[in-house]
Amino acid sequence: MKINYPQAVLYLITICLFVAFSVIFDQPAILIFVFAFLAIIPLSIYLFFKSSDSYSFRIRPRSTYVEAPNEGVYIIEYSCSTRIRLFTGDISFKCENRYYPSDIQSTLSIPLTKKEGVFSMPLSTTDIGLISVTLESVNLTDYLCLIKKTIPLSLIADIPVLPAESDSRDLPEITVREGTDEFVESDNSGNISSDVKEIREYRPGDRLQRVHWKLSAKLDDLFVKEMAHTSNLSIIILPELDRTKIHDTIATLLSCSKKMIADKTRFEIYVYNNNSCEIVSFTISDEETLLCAVTNLYCVPLYDSASAALDVYEATIGKSATVIHIYGKKIEIGENDVI
Amino acid sequence: MLYRIEQFFNKRELNKNHIIVGEVTDSSPKSYLLLCFMKAFLIFIISYSSVMGMLKAFDIPVNKPAVFIVYSVGSLFIASLYLNKTFFYIGYITLFIFYTIELARYYSYANSGFQAVVNIIYGFYSDYFKLMSVREAQELYSNRTVTVTIAAIFVGLFLIILLNVTISGYMNILETMLITLPFFEIAFYINKRPPVIYLFMLIFGYVAVSFLQFSKHARMQVKSRHGHEFVRYKRGKKAIYCYQGNERVFFISFILGIVISLVITLAGFSFYNSKTSEIPTNKIHKATDEYVKIFIQTGLSGFLNGYSSTGGISRGRLGGISQVRPDFEPDINVTFAPYSYETVYLKGFTGTSYINKTWVPDLHVSDEIDSNGETIHNYILLSDFEELNKNRQYPYGNRGKMEIINLDVSPDNPLVPYYSDFDNITYNNNNGFQINSTETITYYPSTSVVDYYETASDALLENADYYEYVYSACTNVPDELKPVLDDVLTEIGYAPYPYGSQSFETGRDRLAAARNIYAYFNENFYYTMSPGSTPVKEDFVTYFLTDQHRGYCVHFASTMVLLLREMGIPARYCEGYCIPISTIYENAVLADEDYTSWYEGSQTFGEETVLSVDVTDANAHAWVEIYLDGYGFVPFEATIPSFDDERNALDFSDFFAGLLSNTIDFSNGEINENNNANIDVTGFEGFLNGLNIRKESVAYVALISFGVIFAFIALLFLYKWSKIRVELCIYKITKNEYKTAKCEYKMLSSKMRRKGYLKKANPLPADVKEAYDRYLFDYNSKHKKSKDIDTKVLFERYEEIFYRR
Q1: C-alpha–C-alpha distance, residues A234 and A232, integer Å
Q2: Complex ipTM > 0.85
Q3: In this structure, what are the phi and psi dihedrals at residue B639, rounded to the nearest 5 degrees?
Q4: pLDDT tens digits, residue range A307-337?
Q5: What is the pTM of this model?
Q6: Touching check for A130 and chain B: CB below 8 Å?
């Protein structure tokens, strides 16, 4: 709880000027107005204390993804548990496309006069990527803005922006060279230790089935299981997330993936993380898993090279599979390191 | 248009930040009409209570239901303009056209009502301050209830338009109070109290507006296809999205406003009605009282010593007029029998004492310093001496009758010709020299100045007080003016009194001295009706003699009086109207009257005729009176003739004043007509004349507008051009590698876009590089001196700085 000094000082100066005017010019009648402005101060502060602790805020995306140039819409909600309500709350938020990090702060000033309020906030972007909104805090003020209270929120919501649907007729025919139908996740139910390759922190886009609920509950944070597969996949898509051709790369990746999903071909997407120098794999069987993979992919920093992912893949993964290397609109298909 | 501008800036920001918040909306529907109604209610409450409170505080008669209905309908209409953008633009234009037309139609009623309010309030202020004289504005209609109601409606509608901006637009309590509280303050200042109901309404309005202002959700909302529920504005780098117009905020504010205003009004009722002492208790209050007194008596010009004049009598106030623009409308109609070719003077004002750029009619006898260190001037009233002068017998042997009809002259200035029989001045009604009244005077004119060349015995001078008045008061010159006057007299060939060898005992000598001064004026000064105003710190006569060297009748008459006085010749300053022979020839019509009943005695005019002359404000004049023993104060013309037609001349400094000369002026109740009304022209010039707009002014305005727009655009370009270069210099000096590279990259991108090599809306460095390569190729193929730039290295550096920062 803080005093809003600029506002309070301004308010008091105005009142003092009226008092001075009244005294200098012997006009007691003017003091009536001063009394009115003084009387509303305690009233305003009293009502603020009665209601400032009863607000809660939420944010959620309205859709799982959007296609550029559509806007990703976020729903901001609040609820108040008392009958006395404040006039206004200033929500400090940050919105960014993770491909283009920025530190632009914004404020959303909403009325808090209802029991529950819902506001929708669209974010426009011309670029693909993961657009996210972070509600950092909310400032509550009394009716006269004399005192304020800052409540930290730290609420985050993401929406992946995908390239618009592209024509997939020109895509080359992809044939599986070996390992057909070997991709089956473990049929064992439960967490058999042999199936779990590693446990890592939750990333946006991870399937809920992979959440390690017990561990998450213990550590108070979300963890997911990275499963060890019983066999190698037949098809691997390896996108080059080069900065200069990212839009085309993602568009081609999606076109390619959607075609394969339509053909009921199961495949993996390998995403190389330039920062951690790791390759993360995502098994794609339907549009949901594809979206999960793309969301993860959007969190990876972009490269400055046209063959960074391929070089690392060739050096580290010794897997026998058909590798589809995507760079911009260019698709190269090869077996293992023969591309 | 605004939408396109908005889109342009959004696109720019999107290109810059890659993301922008779109149209934020509230999921629950809201009624814009209800919001407008609530704002209209607030506007009505505040405007109605402030205007009616003031009127009722002074018991000014007004038709309350009419005002109530017009204010409520007006508030509703004006507040609903914020309903949507089409309403907003069309509604405001319609409103202003309607307002102007109706004001023009009912102007005389509104003006009369306004003057009635001013007169009543001035009356109360005059009583409060115990003032001897009060400004009396002219009321054209006697039914004050009707005229005040019409005036209140027009003033109120204007107030509602202002409040619509401060309440519907900005919801600002301070602006709202600044506009409306002065109405109450006018009453409070002299211990008058508006009825409590209006106080309650006003407090309710103020409290509600205070809450609404700080709620942030009660400001302007104009809904349309491109309207916004959340308004977006920037504070520094931070973008703020603020919700507009929430009904619940209004409801809560109204409830709190009613509760608080009720409590305060009931609790402070006795306090509100308590009166205070009328004697100021501190210096600020006292000084303010003095300014209020000045304002009451002289208007704003009393503070500025500057005002525009449309002719007429200024009652001895000098220096403030920069230009005289007569309206050429008749001020008086004079019926008389002309007896000579000499100018006939009709005196309305006499100035005896010259104090602080003003001719005061009364005799200034002494100054006192009061306990606060302020100067108090003590006077003896002129009327005491004028009573003696009424007994004077004029020896010229002629007798005339004159009728003066007051068409548009202040009743404070009854006009009389020279050598009048003051006991035989009659009016056709009991109100004196009011508008449309007729004054009948008997006078005993002299047909030639030779009549009073020789000194005659003067019985009045045997009265010691009168002698003191003539030979002491009317020869008095302020000490600070003496050096300047002495220099001028020396230049003319006279020495200042009493050291000079000349004596001015006879009328012949005194008139000869005046003629010499006149000749000096004629040789060294020139006449103009646009001399410019005297600087505030300069004395009027000193400035005229030393710097200005140009002026109109007031300048010449004032200066000649002081020069004559400095020579020891008793003289006074006069204002009134003159009827020169040219006016008689131009304007006079024959009156079907018997000549003998209008004039008896000798005459040099040559014809025995009775004429009726319309005397306009252009004939308002100032002249000199010289005292001749045995004949009293006789008029002398001090003003030199004008040799050029300056009336239509328009210099640069005046064109603003003359741009729209047909303006409605509440202060004097006149519509000022254009000076060029008689010029018959057709075409565009005729059209402009029809609108009372000067052609020269249009040209000036067009020129200045073009210049301003051009300068603005040039400055904008200059700013944009220089900003990035200055920034670049600063970054280079501070060795900020990232920002230097960013600046250079930005300049390069802009240049490529300007040259047409870069078309993409959101280009990547590779696009810029490609464009730059093409540009360099084209440049090098066209120019002998090629640009040798390794773009690969350059852009690799940029990318390294940008992305690996």
Answers
A1: 7
A2: no
A3: -85, 130
A4: 888 888 888 766 667 888 898 888 888 755 4
A5: 0.56
A6: no
